[in-house]
Design a protein that fits this description.
By secondary structure, the protein is of the alpha/beta class. It has 12 helices and 12 strands. α4 runs parallel beside α6, α5 crosses α6 and α6 runs parallel beside α7. The structure holds adenosine-5'-diphosphate, iron/sulfur cluster and magnesium ion.
Amino acid sequence: MILEVTNLRKHYRQRAGIFPALRSRERFIPAVDGVSFCLEEHETVGLVGESGCGKTTIGRAILRLTPATSGRIVFDGHDITAMSARELRPLRSQMQMIFQDLDAALNPKMRVRAILAEAITTHHRLSDGEVARRIGELLEQVNLKASKLSNFPRELAGGEKRRVGIARALAVGAHFIVADEPTSALDVSIQAQVVNLLRDLQRQLGLSYLFISHDLEVVQLISRRVAVMYLGKIVEMGLADRIARAARHPYTHLLWSALVEGQSKEASHAPLNTRTGAWEPFDFERPVSGCRFAPRCPVYEARGRPAVCTDAATEPQLHDIGGRHYVAGHFPV
Ligand SMILES: Nc1ncnc2c1ncn2[C@@H]1O[C@H](COP(=O)(O)OP(=O)(O)O)[C@@H](O)[C@H]1O
Ligand code: SF4
Ligand SMILES: [Mg+2]
């Protein structure tokens, strides 16, 4: 087991205004609200859900880029939940994130060569010759032309920038990688190249991935297991082909149907209101007791709004339905 996450919570504090007098109106955003999962060595687990459901927050919390509110994170046998920066340092090189926003993550004032050299020497002291040799190896691994080394990030095409992001994660020596929406904002053909590259690298280097995307189709392509997230919680988790062929949670069905109807891609950045048919932003402020999906759930409607779905005392929890398949819901489809 490379990663074990138990009951992870991350609640952001959001201030109502910039004036101190208004700070008492602070509210908490339960971006991640009790998430448990594990990841085996050489495995890819896909984390899918609409924008705002908490995927990036999970990625950042398990890499300790942001402190968790509560819960436990065990990486490679080490409980890293409360490790100090100094204790964490030797593990930092083993786990890396490929950030969704590479324009922000790659220093715009550094050329590709310097970006990679910096990553290579973060945790290891190497001679110039060794650094150059390692850069050559990385270029080959991510299939990037040597001529790109003298470019600045802004001079690269989207797919090339992705490759630099991947190379930088590898440069550090990581064997566990959180890939946050690595195919977003790319043409479909380039998306496939990036997915294939990640898969090849996994085979060659024995990597483990947490693959984050709002696009269930892409997640399905690369993952062995898939976790479906809705408003801070995992609502269904199972082997990828079970999620594709035998999904049990109404939300997973909704994610697939949006795809079938060709609405997905851009539209799925916002959630679909099944009653109005419109894509709407999430509303953490409108509290829902019981199952968070109830306001959008077609099964809840079809069954005449059963009270058990909105009873705070019976909020559905993930339970094992056999075959490594877990569902949270009172009426699995
Ligand atoms: N630094 C932050 N401060 C306050 N709220 C945040 C912060 N980062 C994310 N959020 C909120 O937490 C929720 C989950 O965000 P995020 O993890 O980025 O979702 P996803 O990656 O699935 O789109 C969203 O409502 C988002 O607005
Ligand atoms: S518990 Fe009720 S509201 Fe929630 S997904 Fe199941 S049927 Fe829908
Ligand atoms: Mg995100």
